[in-house]
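User: Need the bound-state model for flavin-adenine dinucleotide:
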Amino acid sequence: MHIVVCVKQVPDTKVIKVNPKTNTLDRSSAPAILNPYDAHAVEEAVRIKQQHGGKITVVSMGPPQAINAIRKCIEIGADEGVLISDRAFAGADTLATSYALTKAIEKVQKQEPIDLILCGKHAIDGDTGQVGPGIARRMSIPPITNVIKVENVASKEGKVEVRRKIENGYEILQSTTPCLLTVEKEINEVAYSPLPNMIKAAKYEPAVWSVKDLDDVDMTKLGMKGSPTVVGKMWPPAKSAGAKLIEGDAKSQVKQLISIVLEKRQLFEQKGGR
Amino acid sequence: MKVEEYKGVWVFIEQIEGNVVGVSLELLGAGRALADKLEVDLCGVLLGQNVKHIPKQLFEYGADKVYVIDDPILENYRSETYMKAVGDLVRKYKPEIFLYGATSNGKDLASAVATEVMTGLTADTTMLDIDLENRFFEASRPAFGGNIMATILCKKHRPQMATVRSKVMKAIDPQPGRTGEVIQEKIKIKEDDLRTKVLQIVRDTSKKVNLAEADIIVSAGKGVKDANGFKLVCDLADVLNATVGASRDVVEAGLIGHAHQVGQTGETVTPKLYFAIGISGAVQHVVGMNNSETIIAINNDPNAQIFNAAHYGIVGDLFEIVPLLIQEFKVALKEVGGVKTHA
Amino acid sequence: MPEKFDVIVVGAGPAGTACAYLCAQKGLKVLLIERGEYPGAKNVMGGILYRKQTEEIIPEFWKEAPLERPVIEQKFWFLGKESMCSMGYKGKEWATEPFNNFTVLRAQFDQWFAKKAVEQGVLLINETVVLECIKENGKVVGVRTDRPNGEVYADVVVLADGVNSLLAKSLGFRKNIKPDQVALCAMEVLNMPKAKINDRFGLEDNEGCSIEIFGDATQGQLGTAFMYTNKESISIGVGTTLSGMIRAKVKPYELLEYVKNHPMIRPYIHDGEPAEYLAHLIPEGGYHAIPKLVGNGVMIVGDAAQLVNAVHREGSNMAMASGKMAAEAIIKAKANNNFSENGLDSYRTSIYDSFIGKDLKKYKDLAHTFEAHPQYMNEYIPLMNRAASQFFTIDGTPKREKQSKIMQSFTAGRGKFGVVQDIYRAWKVMK
Ligand SMILES: Cc1cc2nc3c(=O)[nH]c(=O)nc-3n(C[C@H](O)[C@H](O)[C@H](O)COP(=O)(O)OP(=O)(O)OC[C@H]3O[C@@H](n4cnc5c(N)ncnc54)[C@H](O)[C@@H]3O)c2cc1C
Ligand SMILES: Cc1cc2nc3c(=O)[nH]c(=O)nc-3n(C[C@H](O)[C@H](O)[C@H](O)COP(=O)(O)OP(=O)(O)OC[C@H]3O[C@@H](n4cnc5c(N)ncnc54)[C@H](O)[C@@H]3O)c2cc1C
Ligand SMILES: Nc1ncnc2c1ncn2[C@@H]1O[C@H](COP(=O)(O)O)[C@@H](O)[C@H]1O
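Assistant: Bound-state model below.
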């Protein structure tokens, strides 16, 4: 099996700061990490490889520092990594990103046919989850999003069965391979990487491709030019005026609160209360 | 692409076994406002098997037209089939705005269609508006873990597409007898040509946790300390017939499953009533619940962040307040129950 | 077969990174193992980095290292309850190349330093804890980490794992650290706009100041406090011997709060925004506490070897210098292909012959003297303040009378003989 995993380096949003004067994100304040969902995608690839053998190639688009995200994937157990990095890719939205990644994957595919492509459910800097399905559409392979379990891989028959999360439950889907899966975090726990992987990763130099290294690229579909969406204004989320504090002793606080809640009596009428 | 050729606001109508999903009706409400501003039609796009009864309801909720493809091949949602069908409709009828619910299927479809017809898509929006002067659709969403709001524009491509979180928009009050035009279309795909199959759908009805759909949520934070404190909160939820939510710290302490977690890495919820009990109000929690209609916080620290997000607050010891609330609500709700039977 | 390296260095602080850097520069195969998320993630230091020992590893490092400010003023404050005496030196010559020393934030500096080592060919592995040294036939041959398949081998293992060095202890190179041989320090980084720092401390951009604080800051215990200016923040900290803290029943952060609210200090820091709180140990056992430095296939550097000069708050420089000496010994051992205790022994002799051995020897009884004789902290500093106050107060008393009054107040507490003894004792340990 040849499994390709798309991975992105993202600023760690839990520590990112907003510059209050310009309302822009101070990216330098946040360390860059491997998108957490993508770590689970790589882990899943490792598990599939453990059962079926084969090879895992990660592909990433980003600035030169993104090789650190690729190294992290090598730690988890990926075999190879490719970074596509070029000024021409800068400012890409999801449509332009999926185009560039598709071109890179096509090149990887020429070297060795691909059975499965894995992506994260979404990247935590954009929260869109559009790149995976975009790649699938461009490569004319079926996308399956929100995968929480890979039930069965029949590599010889060229079929996979997966569990896909939906509201109120899940569905089991079967697809021919190659296909593209985007994975939820609950699909697995990323294992603590073995030391030999750590050493391999510390040494690892991924291939870095520029636009020139890719074949048949339509430059107008790349980067800012190839992106239909643009960011208009940005502003800090409205701060509410703050809570109206209910004063008094506990008894009276509770009485007041109940009368406030009961202004929404229809909520309770439907169910009759208990 | 001639941008002027694209007219009308479309809403993808998601249905499960013939029942329209709540967010689709909410989007008809939001879409109605956009369509009125632009002075164009509001259209529903309805796919499935045996769905002919649905358009009537959509008209009552504000749709002017409904495009319907009713075909066994569309019985269950599949990217492959739905993307093809919707892509064909877009190419044929050229809408200028297209809204989808940010559900598993809605997001999946929107992403695939965006690439299929090569246009821009803004995910997980919470505010929609029109820049009338330029006739631009302004789709806004929280970005970077809720640290900032951003408006995304799609100036040169059509349709302008967005997925919208559920429970953020409001459906209009249905207008009985309101009608519109149904446009039947066909899909030209054979099952044998398809590469994906739905083998089984498991709807977990036993699991009552459905935070996203809940009207009342009573959430516990680290302030409950242990299982005993947590039980108090559960008891209150029980009295109110509410769903129990929790902060991440409570989930990580093993007091309740992850399905109950509210926040950035849990569920986004928009109930009518949200109780935050012993929750400090970290931004990662607040982004998951700050669109609730009424938020009530109980915390013994008057400086707790949660009071910035809440509408009403009680500064006090939850171990004193919650038992009293349980007791008083029991009494008060009996009376409300009475209102219902007498009316 | 697990991979074999020439050198494994445990701990990417200044000591370990310096050693790894220099070994790799000479073409050795080096593995540097760090338990933090990245080098410096949890490392703590007030913030004075010395030019000399750093440039001996990376010449002209100041041109690219993430430094805060070059220090152009060094001050000593002796605090009374509501007063202080101060002395110090400020010189513009320290504001230009080659500088004297710098304030730094370790999280940034260590990360940069390790990056430079990686550029030299060091393999750096983060988030990995070394659990123990692997021994075969009495020789250390590698380490075992907390990861699956976690063994890795080398000709020599360098322990640069900091003050607690569990590894040195498990090899039997040293005993448990005694509470009077280690200081517990708490520090905080307070964010403040550049212009405000410049105003308050009388500095220009890119000029820094270091203040060492004695007396009331430690509420009478043996120890010091410090305040250093960074680019847009102030580092403030305080530490006393662990034994002192136990005796006085104070917690480090309580002491830090006390320092921050001291009337002589508060005006400098009062609206700083707390950005980071850190607590850490400093080895202060000095000369007597230096463990066995070299074993068969293993050596100990930096804080792990307790190489800190507490009097002059020199630690990072000794760490780097010891790392360098270890590297030199390793390179020699490699040439002779002899990594036995004997083959590595030149490291031990270099340490004792260098400024490290000599300085630590000079002050070897200092801590003990001050700890055993609390009058230095408890009596003389308040006295100094009272004396200065009297001296500078213009109240019509003739100067000669003033001086004799001051002398009287010094001897009143401890008696003439006591004072002479104290002065002699202090002179003896400092000389
Ligand atoms: C990447 C990331 C993602 C995250 N995602 C989420 C998420 O999805 N959801 C989430 O909730 N968190 C999330 N967090 C964690 C979040 O930052 C907070 O740590 C967490 O929400 C805190 O939980 P808490 O409010 O229950 O606990 P605490 O912060 O410990 O607050 C407890 C509160 O209880 C109050 N209290 C204590 N005793 C009493 C009493 N007797 N009576 C009344 N009040 C009392 C205290 O004053 C305090 O305010 C995330 C963090 C990160 C970094
Ligand atoms: C508050 C304070 C202020 C100070 N101020 C100054 C000052 O102004 N100037 C000065 O020169 N010195 C100062 N020092 C002293 C200085 O910080 C130390 O002497 C110096 O950091 C020692 O360097 P090191 O490399 O030996 O150890 P450390 O810097 O402690 O590095 C040890 C490294 O080893 C890692 N490690 C530990 N155990 C393991 C393991 N088992 N496996 C893997 N990795 C491990 C740690 O994570 C750490 O990165 C100060 C110290 C403190 C606490
Ligand atoms: N720049 C990128 N390089 C590689 N993979 C990416 C990139 N951007 C997005 N992806 C993949 O697409 C998934 C969804 O990203 P997004 O659509 O940005 O939320 C991620 O989890 C990655 O697997």
